[in-house]
Amino acid sequence: MNRLISICAFMALVAGLCAQQPFEPVTETFCYEDNEPAPVHPVPSRRQLMWQETEFYAFFHFGMNTCTDAEWGNGGEAEAMYAPSMLPDPKQWLAAVREAGMRGGIAVAKHHDGFCLWPTATTSHSVVNAGNAQGRATNIPAAFAAAARELGMKYGFYVSPWDLSSSYWGDATGRYVDSLFLPQCLELARYGSDQFEMWFDGATGSDHPGFYGGANTSRAIAVPATYYDIPNLLDTIHKIAPNCVIWGLGDEARWIGNEEGWAGETNWAMGDGESGDINGWKWRAGESDAKATDRGWFWHEGEKPKPAEELFRMYLETVGRNATFILNFPPDISGRLPEADVAVLKELGSLLSLRLGSDKAITAHSITASETRPRGRSRDYAVSNLTDGDKDTYWATSDTTLSATITLEWERPQTLTYLMLMEYIRLGQRIKRFSVETSMDGRSWQRRAEGSTTTVGYKRILPLCGNTSQPKPVEAKYLRVTIDDARGCPTLHTLSVF
Length: 498
Known about the structure:
Elements: H1 2-20, H2 46-52, E1 56-60, H3 64-68, H4 90-98, E2 104-110, H5 133-136, H6 140-151, E3 154-159, H7 175-189, E4 197-199, H8 224-227, H9 230-240, E5 245-247, E6 254-255, E7 286-291, H10 308-316, E8 323-328, H11 339-356, E9 366-369, E10 395-396, E11 404-416, E12 418-423, E13 431-439, E14 445-448, E15 460-463, E16 474-486, E17 491-497
Helix pairs in contact: 4-6, 7-9, 10-11
């Protein structure tokens, strides 16, 4: 009864107030006043989008294994065995890969052997006890971060969760995670809040024998996410470095499924492996890691870099297939990239600039679309957005239109080799299937790149001849892209032709 009286009293009070106040209309701002398409989920976070925009970056495996001529140490190596012949020079590494068009790099700070390439407070198994002055003066995280900032490049660190040196690793007490792993990650995060990626290898122990503080045995863990306390790890690092994607353990990006430098021609930014999964519920764009040399991840005497043409093909089959590409160039015992590697990097940069540096789409006499979404209050979706060089403007169709055609025409015939498409993935990956055709007269059309025109995603680069190993040019006065099917109305922010 008292509750009923209270409600009645409140209603009477409201009625009285309304009677005393003059009525004033309120202007309502609608959420979709710009007529933007609704997102097709999942969509990337700001951090994930910035990471994918890095596109092409380097891996630098350097450390104890460089000095012992190994790929995987067992963790029992004496600290004095780390003795580079010169002070490592990360600026030389980054300057060399920048010549190849790379936008950043990931440096190994600790590999599976547990040897730390910085003066950590967590263990004596570090550069503090190295075998010479150059070794003891090493601080890879500090030098690498400083060099990247000076050169205007992105940077991050590889730290192995698996630690073959620690007697604590693999036990059920949590001592390894609490006293070594999390503190080490925290130390590395503090070397720069502007890091773009922290790289955690997926190794979880195996038949590979480890030192483990003298136990000399094999160990394994069952559930890495639980063992390494991943929620706490993510929260800790992101508070310090908010734009740092946690690769591997963090599940913010995925391994592409091979170490050969290729992604699937169909490649969704959801799911697993080379092709992803259109039905995946979480945004997990792929990263392809590959070796640029003919031996291991670490430097070995006598190794040679792969030819620039082979590395260019890898670029087309990774960055050009909606993946990022992390390409490994290992510094040698002097802490520098060998001259042969530097020369190949420069050649690769020249190939990228020559073949993908001059966009003929912006010189087209006309670019038209079969349909364009009606403009909103402050945003339009004109087809001209595809060639304005602005990633924040895009072309789109109406909500119910899942197929459309875009046609370019030049005044004179052109020599064309590659087509590049980029979806506006802030609203999700949409295109399921498309086709490409060229013509000399606008009436008779020839299909190009047959069999490989499925997904687009962040970026798709197609040789018009359909062969990434030996791209051949075609002559055309017209080029037509037909989006045949999509998960929602298609959105593209860039169309380029080279």
